[in-house]
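Protein Entry — a single chain follows
Next Lines — sequence and tokenised fold
***
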Amino acid sequence: MFTGLVEAAGRVTLFEENEKGFQMDVEVPTELRDAQLGDSIAVNGCCLTVARMSEDTVSFDLLAESVRRTSFNGLSKGRLVNLERSLLPTTRMGGHFVSGHVDDTGAVDVFEKRGADHYLKVTCKPEGLAYLVEKGSIAVDGISLTVAEVHSDGFAVWLIPHTLTETNLRDRAAGEQVNLEFDLLAKYVERMVVARTGGKS
């Protein structure tokens, strides 16, 4: 479980397919170098397990299914990825509950500076729109963000300068894919409603 508050952005030093699936190596900033083998780290919002590590690099093994269902299918060496270690009992809950299980990918439609802040519009599949409400929560590449607008084809959020400085969004451009995890509570509510209405949502 995560909060969606990205601790740092790391740069991919290796992303390749091998006989076991895929391997991703990420150069991690100083503040995350106390990670241990077996730790869970959200990488662009996808929960991965530390498989190997050196002084400044952590390595993850990925299933082909994980790559297919996330924006990792377009990942390349040199790209920035968002990193967040899993919650501890003492962690302050400043974002929202993020499971690290990516629901789908979306496409950056509009990404532009407006005044001091940045406006980001992301398109997504119709199935995801049911979990979006104005002022609700959405995780974009693992970043906990507040939905500012809901459109017929997606949603928009506002980004403060700090978010761009600390995350990989400073490296994003229109047309690129981002990982999306919709609000966990909304999905549970939908499941309970469907169960109580005999499959009619």
